[in-house]
Amino acid sequence: MNEQDQKIIQRGIAAQELLENEAFQAVRYVVEQGYLSSIMTTGLEDGETREKLFRKVHALRELTVELNDWVFQKNSREDRLAQGDDFAED
Given phi > 0 = left and psi -120 to 50 = alpha, else beta, which region is 84? Predict the structure, then answer.
């Protein structure tokens, strides 16, 4: 296992732990629901505020997608190494 493999695996483990952490899950849910609730209560004329809130929801979801991608990369790297493939593809 080379240094790049170790980095990807360690990063993936940290991402998986964060995604499985109850406090992270709870705060992510509360924050997203707060943004969505605020979107629903904006006035018809307040499109700029809705757009800003939508971008915040999108950014929060992008964060989760990226963390899940790190877990996927970790799993793929571990599978590759388990099969004896030591070729660094990065």
Answer: left
**pTM of structure:** 0.82
Taking residues 25-42, report their average pLDDT: 96
80 conformational bin, left if phi > 0, alpha if psi -120 to 50, beta if neither: alpha
> Using CA atoms, how far apart are residues 62 and 67, in angstroms rounded to an integer?
9
Cα–Cα distance between 10 and 24 in angstroms, integer?
19
Neighbours of 77 (CB within 10 A): 22
Q: How many helices (H) and strands (E) are present in the chain, helices listed first?
A: 3, 0
50 half-sphere exposure, CB direction, 13 A CA radius: 9
